[in-house]
């Protein structure tokens, strides 16, 4: 009897955590969508002005800043760096595509 109640309690606690996880995941998706909306505008600006898609010195500043923020927030700084690199690689891929399309539009 007690075991059943323990299990029911555990399931209710798990459902509560999962509701928070779902809200956090939704917020992450919205924040990423907003970041990519912004970086796509950066890609257009860079393509129009002949600026390079990647800026390694800016990335170094971002990594240093995010590693410190991660440490302060008790998050693994290596994970924070990997996550930023993952996102930035995708941004650079978008920038390269935009630049290629911009060049094709000018040539055509
Ligand atoms: O800040 C820029 O120049 C960007 O293009 C944005 C961004 C980023 O996603 O934060 C992407 C590529 C650069 O290498 C550096 C930073």
From TrEMBL:
Keywords: Isomerase. Residues 8-99 form the Chorismate mutase domain. One of its GO terms (molecular function) is chorismate mutase activity. It is an enzyme of class 5 (isomerase). Its EC number is 5.4.99.5. Pfam families: CM_2 (PF01817). This is chorismate mutase. It comes from Mesorhizobium vachelliae.
């Amino acid at each position: 009897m007690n075991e059943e109640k323990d299990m029911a309690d555990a399931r209710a606690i798990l459902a509560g955590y999962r509701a928070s996880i779902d809200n956090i995941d939704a917020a992450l998706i919205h924040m990423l969508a907003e970041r990519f909306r912004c970086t796509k505008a950066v890609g257009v600006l860079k393509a129009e002005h002949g600026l390079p898609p990647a800026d390694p010195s800016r990335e170094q500043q971002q990594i240093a800043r995010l590693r410190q923020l991660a440490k302060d927030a008790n998050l693994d700084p290596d994970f924070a760096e990997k996550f930023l690199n993952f996102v930035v690689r995708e941004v650079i891929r978008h920038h390269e595509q935009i630049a290629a399309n911009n060049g094709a539009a000018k040539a055509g």
